[in-house]
Write a structure and sequence with these properties.
heterotrimer; A alpha/beta (about 575); B mainly alpha (about 290); C alpha/beta (about 400); A: about 575 residues; alpha/beta; Rossmann fold; six-stranded mixed beta sheet; four-stranded antiparallel beta sheet; 23 helices; 10 strands; B: about 290 residues; mainly alpha; two-stranded antiparallel ribbon; 11 helices
């Protein structure tokens, strides 16, 4: 073993350094962001730290701290403007940033330009490199099951839904970016203090792509992925050397083939290979369940002040001259179950988006629990105690049902990551109670027995119920259901009606948007009718069903048609 | 004036390369990072046909274009088709195309070696034309003509033919296109072939223009190609043309005005600024996705 | 727990790796050092008829992939040719253990460590690029294994330590002679310079050019730069042409050199072009054709020398490899021969003995001319200033 370590010292160190860089990529990938600025962060930290070591002779631990901070700060500053870009656009903006950093390093005197910077003392030892790697791994190991980790996963799966669950998307993205910068910085410091020499060309586009390869080949589904990816790809040339593959074109050829094989045949990366062998998540969550005190049903968020929960006054919304809503005004009082019906295109979803802060009203006043909404982001509205489901379900497809619901509890869950990181037992208790709350919500909708299945495997109707459970987990005062019965058969709709009534019985105020008029009439204490963006009726179900204007709107004919609203029965 | 000519000339090759890139992205929403390897192989194959097999230049260019189409077919079959339907198809496609590019570059290194290959002196007509203080060789004019013809041809194809309509339908919504009876598989394959044929053409024209063919030639243009499609607007063909010309001119003029050391800062600074101010590029259209 | 399972898998993997590595790593190396130790015990013999039973292991690290592969491939040809010739002579035989640094310092370090720890080589030749050498050579210095650079021209390479040698002249040695000869021949008043600004070789070359021009009292009218991998130099050349210089001074790698010559001719630049080391290859003349006429290049190797050793080298090289040798091949060839001289004069495969013997090399005949190592382990041999005439290099009078 000692011989092995001596012979392969450099390869082993590079495996660790590249693993750290892979973690830096992993940090953004788990939040669903593709950034390729990692090489640039590493470059800036490498130069800063090398200059400090060479010119000021600072001790190495201090240099590491500075390098990591510089990486984090640069990432934060870059993140502020670019994080509103998505997908490939973010990737290319960050590539652009990386190239600018490289060219600036080429043209500055202090970096030595193309000649490079040297001699940097070689201080990094094997155990230091692996300590750094272990710290990064530990960070993500502790992160994943925490509230923060769950939020990042939700963000990766569906940004809009994550925001609707109360997650401050911008802050979460910045967190991921900053962590990424810090770890890239760490890899840069290690790199420069191991190779003794740095030049701008070592931190170019290719290096950024390498970081991506490490992270993706290792797999983004587990915190050990970057260790495997960085280690495997770094060891590959050495392996070929040992196997006697002749230097020259054959080595990159095999590298490419192996990489291709991994991507094509090992979905989920190398870390996915270990999955079928072992323990599933069930046990971990099972343990949590047991530890949790079994409290009674979820209690809605307490009342805050008097007055209506929602008040709309003269609200209008137009898209480029086309009025989706005009002069809409109504109140929803505490404890009501209000139905909102209207033909397709009447503006129902627009209305619900306005109340939840996903869109802003063009005119008028919107108040939720006494707070007036003015460009208030959705996550802030959620924190007022508003939860919703979506017309087209927006579940976090690859997360388990339990995790989906737990994300819904974002508003009421306590932040546990920092305490987890240092193994404070209170964090574990909080997490257990979060999961227990999620399980209670799952039980309410009758899905507890399938809590560990990923949401994408659920049937359409079950997905809708899962969304309701997710919304309930935030213990909302107001629950907005956007066509929950769409696509359900009669039996399912019947049990949905029971569910809505039982939720209402717990004191949750409900605003139900629905096409299934029978369902609305059965469950609601009051019905609003929208037509072409105008509110044409507001009253108890029986009264609204007989309203001539409503009948006309639904049948599109004159009012003297003696028929009642379709499917509307007392 | 000379600089303007230089810029347009350089820009037209960037544009040709970028159009292939953006075609695949626009229609299929995939970023094919093996495109640079096609560019490189196009140049090598053209050289092989012209110098080793003694084909006339025009035939060698056509041969390189055809070879490019075949490479496109291989790329789609090897790197993208097996991923279809996987939830991580986008990421995985990025990586598998990088992997395939590594393989292609290694093969080129194995066959052609690391040396720069050049066409022997006297391979091209050396006549040149002067106007308004600028010198242009006939070869440059021919290259420009080929590039512009191919760009206009592609635009026409996408805008006015049945195939083009099918491609646009797939771009809008593959599922709906399939329902409408469009053979999405075939359209995908053809898109890749067209894209790679363009990339390969850019490669051989580049080789003719600068008389330099080497294994790493794709790397330098890969980043610029990305910059061009972003500046022009992701998925927009006229955008890629415009972006290519802009980048060519920006490079040439920043060398002349600002100094060449900072040239690429200008190019990438421009890229960065455009992304922040107009995330969909100059001619790109905002894609509305359902909420 | 998930984590524990992974730790278990990892450690099993690490053990497996350790097992493989152990097998390959220790046994042959141990034998090698025994043999080397045995050799030192034998009484020393006169240089020239030394015999060693075991072949002397020479590590060779050249770039065979990546951007520097162009140089690495001819270097390898040159080194292999010299080793074959040495082995044919008998007495001491040499085993070249070839590694690829992929033009990347991060790949060069493991290559050096493998050669030193696993193969236990007596000396290492390489690496191709100076940038790589800055990272790799300290590894050999720390391990006490001598390194002979055969293409590193950057300042400061041999300052890394007393095990680091090179037989390649620095630009600082060649360029002043070139400028002096050119000023004498063309009566230069002002020049335009052009160089690649992202490569340490071309940057340091340019810096040296500027210093030499200043010394000779020549003005620099304009300075243009380009980047590695560029293929279009029209903007820079147009700007240079507009400055109306007496000559164009270019510091570029071989890749760009031929293109620059061709494009300069296309733009109608007819002043002399003075090139750095990158221009010093017959391939440039072949590729640039007419456009290469009149190019002035300082070089470490005179391919037009009438010295029979040079002629023999060229013939042998052309037979063994496909194409004419360039300076990189000649320097690698000379480097292998210098190593053989050192090994045979020490009559030992012991790294320290070889290092000491390298220090004793003065005034020996090589294809580079009469060669000595300086006090600071750098190369000392005559440079030549060449001009391209009628499609081949001639000495600039």
């Amino acid at each position: 073993m000692a011989d092995f370590v001596r012979t392969y010292n450099a390869v082993l160190v590079f495996m660790a350094i590249n693993g750290v860089l892979a973690f830096s990529m992993y940090a953004v990938l788990i939040a669903g962001q593709l950034s390729l600025a990692q090489a640039a962060f590493a470059s800036i930290a490498a130069y800063t730290s090398a200059l400090l070591t060479i010119n000021l002779g600072l001790p190495f631990p201090l240099v590491v701290v500075v390098g990591v901070s510089v990486g984090a700060i640069v990432a934060l500053l870059l993140g502020l403007p670019v994080l509103r870009l998505r997908g490939v656009f973010l990737a290319i903006a960050t590539i652009g940033f990386g190239e600018m950093v490289r060219i600036v390093a080429l043209n500055l005197d202090i970096t030595g330009g193309a000649i490079g910077l040297r001699p940097i003392p070689k201080v990094v030892t094997l155990w230091q490199a692996y300590l750094a790697l272990a710290l990064c791994a530990c960070f993500f190991w502790r992160l994943r099951p925490s509230k923060l980790g769950r939020g990042l996963a939700a963000l990766r799966e569906d940004e809009v839904a994550a925001r609707a669950m109360g997650i401050d998307v911008v802050r979460y993205k910045l967190f991921a970016f900053t962590v990424s910068g810090a770890m890239a910085g760490l890899s840069g410091v290690l790199f420069s203090h191991f190779t003794r020499f740095i030049a701008p060309g070592q931190f170019g586009f290719e290096r950024a792509v390498e970081a991506l390869l490490y992270a993706v080949v290792g797999g983004t589904g587990h915190w050990l992925g970057p260790v495997l990816g960085g280690g495997f790809l770094t060891f590959l040339p050495e392996l070929q050397r040992q196997l006697g593959v002749e230097a020259g074109w054959l080595r990159p050829f095999y590298n490419g083939l192996i990489l291709l094989a991994v991507v094509l045949f090992v979905p989920g990366g190398l870390v996915g290979l270990g999955r079928p062998l072992g323990v599933s998540r069930r046990r971990r969550f099972g343990a949590a369940e047991k530890a949790a005190p079994s409290v009674e049903a979820a209690s809605p968020a307490g009342p805050s002040g008097n007055g209506p929960l929602v008040r709309l006054e003269d609200v209008g919304k137009s898209y480029g001259g086309l009025a989706a809503l005009a002069n809409v005004g109504f109140c929803v009082e505490r404890g009501e179950v209000v139905g909102l019906i209207g033909p397709n295109g009447a503006g129902k979803t627009t209305l619900i988006n306005i109340v939840t802060g996903l869109t802003q009203a063009s005119t008028g006043v919107v108040e939720v629990r006494g707070t007036r909404l003015r460009r208030t982001p959705a996550n802030r509205v959620t924190s007022l105690g508003v939860a919703r489901t979506f017309q087209q379900t927006k579940l976090f497809a690859h997360l388990s049902a339990r995790e989906n619901v737990a994300v819904g509890g974002h508003r009421v869950a306590r932040d546990t990551f920092l305490r987890r990181l240092v193994f404070v037992p209170g964090a574990r208790r909080d997490e257990a109670s979060d999961l227990a709350r999620a399980d209670r919500c799952l039980a309410m909708v009758g899905l507890l027995d399938r809590a560990d299945e990923p949401a994408e495997r659920f049937s359409y109707g079950d997905q809708r119920r899962l969304e309701i459970a997710r919304a309930l987990c935030g213990e909302p005062a107001l629950l907005l259901l956007d066509e929950p019965a769409a696509g359900m058969n009669h039996v399912e709709a019947q049990s949905l009606a029971d569910l809505i009534r039982s939720i209402a019985a717990r004191g949750v105020t409900i605003l139900l948007i629905e096409h299934n008029v029978r369902l609305v009439m059965r469950t609601c204490s009051r019905v609003l009718v929208l037509d072409f963006g105008r509110l044409i009726a507001d009253g108890p179900p029986g009264e609204v069903a007989r309203d001539s204007e409503v009948i006309r709107a639904y049948l599109g004919t004159s009012a003297d048609q003696p028929s009642s609203v379709p499917e509307a029965g007392p | 004036m000379q600089q303007l000519v230089n810029g347009i000339f350089l820009g037209s090759i960037y544009a040709l390369f970028a159009m292939g890139y953006t075609l695949v992205f626009g229609v299929l929403d995939l970023l094919n990072l093996a495109h640079q390897a096609v560019f490189m192989l196009g140049a090598f194959i053209g050289w092989l046909l012209a110098v080793e097999f003694g084909w006339p230049l025009w035939a060698a260019v056509i041969g390189a274009v055809a070879a490019g189409a075949i490479l496109g077919l291989l790329i789609e079959r090897i790197a993208f088709a097996p991923l279809r339907g996987r939830p991580d198809a986008h990421f995985a496609g990025l990586i598998s195309s990088i992997a395939l590019a590594i393989v292609m570059v290694a093969v080129a290194l194995g066959i052609f070696g690391p040396q720069t290959l050049r066409f022997p002196p006297g391979s091209f007509p050396s006549a040149r034309v002067s106007f308004a203080g600028a010198t242009v060789s006939v070869l440059q004019l021919v290259i420009l003509a080929v590039a512009v013809t191919m760009m206009l041809g592609l635009n026409w194809l996408v805008a006015s033919t049945r195939l083009g309509r099918a491609m646009r339908a797939v771009a809008e919504n593959p599922r709906a296109a399939r329902v409408l009876g469009i053979n999405v598989e075939r359209v995908t394959l053809i898109t890749f072939m067209l894209s790679s044929a363009l990339g390969s053409t850019a490669g051989i024209l580049f080789a003719l223009a600068f008389n330099s063919i080497r294994v790493e030639m794709g790397l330098a243009i890969e980043l610029k190609g990305l910059a061009v499609i972003i500046v022009g607007g992701m998925g927009s063909l006229p955008g890629a043309m415009l972006g290519g010309l802009l980048l060519g001119l920006a490079e040439v003029f920043s060398v002349a005005r600002i100094g060449s050391g900072w040239r690429d800062v200008v190019a990438f600074g421009l890229l960065f600024a455009i992304l922040l101010l107009r995330p969909h590029g100059l001619l790109g259209r905002k894609r509305v996705r359902e909420v | 727990m998930d984590g524990l399972r992974w730790i278990a898998i990892l450690s099993v993997g690490a053990l497996l790796l350790a097992a493989c590595g152990g097998d390959g790593g220790t046994s042959p190396g141990a034998e090698g050092s025994d043999a080397a130790a045995g050799a030192t015990d034998t009484p020393s013999q006169a240089a020239g008829d030394c015999t060693l039973d075991e072949p002397v292991k020479v590590g060779v690290v050249f770039s065979q992939t990546g951007p520097a592969a162009v140089y690495g491939s001819t270097q390898l040809n040159g080194a292999e040719l010299a080793a074959e010739e040495q082995n044919a002579e008998g007495g001491v035989t040499y085993e070249l253990i070839v590694e690829d640094d992929a033009s990347d310092p991060a790949q060069g370090i493991p290559a050096f460590e493998k050669l030193i720890n696993q193969d236990q080589v007596s000396i290492i030749m390489g690496p191709t690029l100076s940038n790589t050498a800055f990272s790799t050579d300290p590894v050999a210095q720390d391990a006490g294994v001598p390194v002979l650079g055969v293409s590193n021209t950057a300042e400061g390479i041999t300052e890394i330590g007393d095990y680091i040698w090179r037989n390649s002249l620095t630009e600082g040695q060649v360029i002043p002679q070139t400028i002096e000869a050119a000023v004498g021949a063309f009566d230069l008043q002002k020049v335009a310079t052009l160089y690649g600004d992202d490569d340490s070789f071309t940057v340091s070359g340019h810096d040296t050019f500027v210093a030499a021009l200043e010394e000779q009292g020549v003005d620099v009218a304009t300075t243009q730069t380009f980047a590695k991998g560029n293929t279009d130099f029209a903007p820079q050349l147009t700007a240079a042409r507009d400055a109306d210089p007496d000559a164009l001074v270019v510091s570029a790698l071989a890749e760009e050199a031929a293109l620059i010559l061709q494009q300069a001719a296309e733009l109608g630049i007819d002043v002399p072009i003075i090139g750095g080391n990158g221009f010093n290859s017959p391939a440039i003349i072949e590729q640039a054709g007419e456009a290469a006429e009149g190019v002035v290049v300082g070089a470490a190797w005179n391919s037009a020398s009438d010295d029979p050793a040079t002629a023999d080298f060229i013939t042998a090289y052309e037979e063994a490899a496909d194409g004419a040798p360039d300076q990189f091949a000649a320097q690698a060839y000379a480097g292998m021969n210098l190593i053989a001289m050192a090994v045979e004069s020490a009559c030992s495969a012991e790294p320290d003995a070889i290092r000491d013997a390298l220090g004793g090399i003065t005034g020996v005949e090589t294809v580079l001319g009469e060669f000595s190592f300086t006090e600071s382990r750098d190369a000392d041999h005559p440079a030549v200033v060449q001009i391209v005439e009628d499609g081949s290099f001639a000495i600039l009078e």
